[in-house]
Structures are given as C-alpha cells and as structure tokens.
Amino acid sequence: MRRARGFTLIELLVVLVIIGGMVGLAVLSTGIAGPARALNNEADRLVGLIGVLAEEAVLDNREYGLRLSPAAYQVLRYEESSGKWLPLAGKDHQLPDWAELSFELEGQAITLPGPAKEDKEQKAAADSVPQLLILSSGELSPFRLRLGERRKDGLRLQMSSDGFRLPKVEAVTASGRAG
Asked: Torsions phi, psi of 22, nearest 5?
C-alpha cells in the first residue's frame, strides 16, 4: 500500500503565519499606512521641537521663536546684541505638499504668510518676527496650532498650550474640537 504524500495542516498553518508576518512587515516598512502616519510624525516632530526649545530657552537664558507659514516652519533665536530674530538653521522645515498649518494665538486666528511674491525688504521684515514665542522664563505664547491634510475630509491634528504647559498632539473631530 502506498502512503499519500502531501503537507499536513500544521505545516500549512506555519507557512501562512510566516507569509502573514512578512507581509505585515512590508506594509509597515513601506509606509502604505498613508498620510495619517506621516501627519502624526510631523505633529510629533513639531511638539518635540517645541519641548526641546523650551528646555534650551531656560538652560541658555535665551528667547526662541517659531516662524510659521501654511507649508513650513523655522526656528528663530533672539540676539540681544543686534535686537533681531535670527534663523537657527538655514532653511525652513517644509511640510509635505498635502499638509498645511493653521495657527491661533491667544484664541485669535492668525493669517500665516504664504509664498506670495512681495517686495524683498517687506518680506525680510515680516519673516524676521516669529508668531510663537518660547521664552527663557519657561513660558510659551498661548497657542493652538493645527496640522492637517489639505483635502476637506482629511485628518486634522491639534497642538495647543496655555502658555505654561508643553503641547500634546490631539486629533480634531469633525465638529472642530480636539478629542
């Protein structure tokens, strides 16, 4: 009598588990999760930056600020000797094309400067002042910063501070409230 050759059920299940694990790792490593994860990463990066700047401000007894636009932000440092705000790094941090920032300072919506073509002197003067201040006393400007996808039904995240505590990332619901 001949014995039937083939795979047992256990062998098939082991192979399926291995393939499933490999597919899961491939999905995570290629970023198929989409803009939601990238948006969360951008928000976490911005909150982390504000936290580091707050610590630096207290330790170095210096004033820092963030200059914001709908598509980018830049860190500025106040130089007492010249009385000017100077960029800490050469370039703005650009957000992905599909993301945008909006900003409220002390409960008032602030129109962020766009990439409009302006007179160079006017643009330099406007660019040199940050909208969000991080003071050497450990205080921040009371703010609400929203980072979201440009499309209407896209994910929206909010970072806010009352001026004393560091911001946290919260998802904004359809009603416009963080939840």
From this structure: -65, -40
SS3 at position 134: strand
Mapped to the 3 state alphabet, what secondary structure does 21-68 carry?
Answer: HHHHHHHHHHCCCCHHHHHHHHHHHHHHHHHHHHHHHHHHCCCEEEEE
Number of domains making up the chain: 1
Selection from 2, 135, 116 nearest residue 77 by Cα: 135
- pTM reported for the whole predicted model: 0.73
Q: Where do we find the tokens 């201040």?
A: 133
54-82: pLDDT as tens digits: 999 999 999 999 999 999 999 999 999 98
CATH of residue 98: 3.55.40.10
> Residue 179: inside a domain, yes or no?
no
